[in-house]
Design brief:
The complex is a heterodimer.
Chain A (H helix, E strand, L loop, with lengths): L19 E6 L5 E6 L3 H26 L5 H8 L4 H8 L3 H7 L2 H4 L4 H10 L4 H5 L1 H6 L7
Antiparallel strand pairs in A: 1-2
Helix pairs in contact in A: 1-2, 3-4
Chain B lengths: L12 H12 L6 H7 L3 E11 L2 E7 L4 H9 L3 E5 L4 H13 L4 E5 L18 E9 L2 E5 L7 E4 H8 L11 E6 L6 H18 L6 H36 L4 H19 L4 H29 L7 H22 L6
Antiparallel strand pairs in B: 1-2, 3-8, 4-5, 4-8, 5-6, 6-7
Helix pairs in contact in B: 1-2, 2-8, 6-10, 7-8, 7-9, 7-10, 8-9, 9-10
Classes of the chains: A mainly alpha, B alpha+beta.
């Protein structure tokens, strides 16, 4: 890559808040470092990854609103976690977490466990049990 | 309390942390030099390890290895820790900062508050240096960022104990002693030989040059086996691994080419310049691969570039890299 080929495409979402260091060859053939604003292929890959996340969150949101899954499932997806990760953050076993994703068991959760989930998911326990909050959460694409 | 520590940005976080730490102790090495001596260059495609639900493709060695190898090869003594207890992890850090020692550590990216949201996936192999504390806030030198950042103790604790693939478990490291004299030349040779050996001879198909071919083979089967959508996602995952946070595939090839160029001069071996040129060309091919792949998963048009074409590009890259490392393997001080 030559120094004038260092990509300066507009970055996805952040508009140049981070500039990457790249190494490139100057006109005498010597390597030097240069800052890059962003690169289209990378932006596209990031965008696709986020679209995938939003899609899954929305899907889960619908299922929570239909009463099939508990709010934990929604916030789990929103935090891009899976069951294994949520289990290791809460210190519970995977099958227990899986159980708590069902409304039936979620309703029976004791306050201390609820608080633990809320802490891991970065919300308050009151927000966690409030399904109306999820209904209000439209998933937006930011691009 | 703030240690007089000079922050500088780097293409790759671990190179940056290592080079900043060495600079603090009076050894000024460029980022390519750190990357080369630390044998940071690698390739692996591991379908059985998942990150965000998809196979891990990595263009570097495991986190922590670059620092470990650079310090070992230069005769620098270090200490590395891992913690079970969070409070203790923070206490130890405070103790070291009190003594005026800057501390490198491994953190998860997802909860890193100063990071832009677009990068904040659950990725746990990020390196930063902490070099001071005032009140509840820690001074952080993050090689990805242009300026010094700060984190509260609660935030720092959270990122140090992030969970998921390869949890950092509060890992931290610092330099305890410097040698009287640093001899670069043997360290450079060792770094090159190690990289060449690992790229060429690991008898497991997932690693090194074979790993690239392995990925190519897998890629050919994606559309049939997984369907178009998952295949696209897999491909985008490879591109993200290739390009995320300014590093990865092509970026590393250019850093390595820069390293070879420096070596040619320091070691008085002009033939390394030719290999540097070839490495630059390989880097450009990786970039071309990323462009084609992005075009493919963006339009999802099956016509022009197929997975077979992309796999062919990878096979070609693998052959060229093999050529370079076969020559590099023969390097010696004499």
């Amino acid at each position: 890559m030559k120094i004038n080929e260092v990509p300066q495409d507009e970055a996805y979402m952040i508009k140049g808040k981070i500039r990457d260091v790249c190494y490139a060859v100057d006109k005498d053939g010597h390597y030097t470092s240069a800052l890059s604003m962003g690169w289209t292929p990378k932006n596209e890959a990031l965008k696709l990854a986020w679209e995938q996340v939003y899609e899954q969150v929305e899907e889960t949101r619908q299922q929570v609103l239909a009463g099939k899954l508990s709010p934990i499932a929604f916030y789990m997806k929103q935090n891009i976690m899976d069951i294994a990760m949520l289990a290791s953050y809460t210190g519970l076993s995977k099958w227990k977490v899986r159980k708590h994703l069902k409304m039936k068991y979620f309703n029976r959760l004791k306050p201390d466990l609820l608080a633990k989930y809320a802490e891991v998911l970065n919300i308050t326990p009151a927000e966690l049990v409030n399904t109306e909050r999820i209904r209000a959460k439209a998933i937006k694409h930011e691009d | 309390m703030k240690i007089d520590f000079q922050h500088s940005q780097a293409a790759h976080c671990e190179n940056g942390v290592t080079s900043n730490l060495l600079k603090f102790y009076g050894i000024d090495l460029s980022e390519p030099m750190i990357f080369g001596i630390g044998s940071g260059y690698f390739f692996s495609h591991m379908p059985f390890i998942k990150l965000n639900g998809m196979s891990v493709t990595s263009f570097r060695v495991l986190p922590g290895w670059i620092f470990k190898r650079v310090t070992r090869r230069l005769g620098i003594s270090v200490k590395r820790f891992k913690f079970k207890n969070r409070e203790k992890a923070m206490q130890e850090l405070d103790n070291l900062l009190e003594k005026g020692i800057p501390v490198g550590m491994l953190v998860g990216v997802y909860l890193l508050t100063y990071f832009p949201k677009e990068y904040r996936f659950h990725f746990n192999a990020h390196n930063i240096t902490v070099f001071g504390k005032e009140g509840d806030r820690y001074y952080v030198s993050d090689p990805v960022m242009e300026n010094v950042e700060t984190l509260s103790s609660e935030e720092l604790k959270k990122v140090r104990f992030a969970m998921g693939t390869y949890p950092p478990k509060g890992r931290m490291y610092y330099i305890t002693g410097m040698p009287a004299q640093v001899d670069l030349k043997p360290a450079m040779i060792k770094g090159i030989r190690k990289t060449a050996k690992d790229m060429l001879t690991i008898p497991i198909p997932m690693f090194g040059i074979d790993g690239i071919r392995f990925l190519a083979g897998k890629m050919r089967k994606w559309p049939r086996k997984l369907g178009d959508k998952t295949a696209s996602l897999n491909l985008s995952q490879v591109i993200r691994m290739l390009e995320e946070i300014g590093t990865g595939g092509a970026g590393f090839r250019f850093i390595y080419a820069a390293f070879l160029q420096e070596c040619a001069e320091v070691l008085q071996k002009p033939w390394l310049n030719d290999l540097s040129l070839e490495m630059t060309a390989i880097g450009d091919q990786w970039r071309e691969f990323a462009v084609q792949a992005a075009r493919h998963f963006k339009n999802r048009d099956k016509g022009r570039t197929s997975y077979d074409n992309l796999a062919d590009m990878l096979m070609n890259i693998a052959d060229r890299e093999e050529g370079v490392f076969k020559q590099l393997r023969k390097i010696s001080l004499g």
